[in-house]
Amino acid sequence: MLSDLERNQYVKDYIIPSFNYLVNHDSFSTLFDIYGKCIICTRRNMLDLGFTSQNEMIGLSYAEINDEMLKKLAGENYSLNMDEIKTSCNKIHELLLTSVKHKRIVKFIDLIPYNQHYRSFLETYTPILHPSGEVVAVQSMSIEFKMFDLPSLLDRNKEKPKSFSIPKDSPPLDLPPRQHEILYLLLQGIPQEYAAQILNIKRGTLARIVSENLCPKFGIHGSNTKLLIKKAQELGLQDYMPRSLWKPSVIILDKELGNLTNSQDDV
Questions:
Q1: Segment 10-23, tens digit of pLDDT
Q2: What residue ranges define each of the domains in the chain, with the CATH number in brackets?
């Protein structure tokens, strides 16, 4: 088993020199040690997080972000979403350690507000191995995308994904907050499994709300998600994002890794 000294020396001699070619590249990437602390990152990643130098980033960890750092990252959103941001940071740290422990690539969607902006990133954590087979570091690669416009992402005829905002006027159909959230996510083409993760509820709870609450309001007997979406689109409900959806979250894309997070049932 490698000592910390041997591991750090290998990273310094072989991994960092290779990563240096990416530093000024137009991409989001960070190199973490096996404990989840930042070793080095690309310039774009650094600036996008609101930092001005690499030295500010070195040693930072999702597990050790304090209130001052969270305020820097989230700005005015900090006080409104403090608990959610901390929970999401802890979940990301847990996923990084899982990548190290099991030597596996981890994929998830990061909805934490960085540099005072809400955006969604598809994150990939890849373990880097020593010739002995031990993990010596983890490299993250991030791609920004429009979380709530999946249909547009799949439509190659559209030049740009739709820009989303929260309308000031009321939607044509008044729904309780949870039902509004579920319906909106379904209207954006998000599968029920991932919608449940976003809302931090069980998939069974979401399915029950669809069949027992939403479908009857649209005159639908039983559970018919396809017909529900069609009728909701006719009312234009896809353009009315619930304000409550603007909150930090981490969506795990690997079903096996999903067991790491115990979703709280929220009826």
A1: 999 999 999 999 99
A2: 4-147+248-260 (3.30.450.20), 167-245 (1.10.10.10)
pTM of the prediction? 0.69
Distances 248 to 7, 83, 141, 196, 265 between C-alpha atoms, Å: 34, 9, 19, 14, 18
Quickly tell me which residue has 């070793």 as its tokens. 39
What is the distance between the alpha carbons of residues 128 and 140, in angstroms, rounded to a whole number? 11
**For the chain, which ranges sit under pLDDT 70?**
74-80, 116-118, 146-170, 243, 246, 258-267
Q: If we measure between CA atoms, which residue out of 15, 5, 216, 264 comes closest to residue 128?
A: 15
Question: In this predicted model, what pLDDT tens digit does every residue of 221-249 receive, in sequence order?
Answer: 989 999 999 999 999 898 787 867 767 78
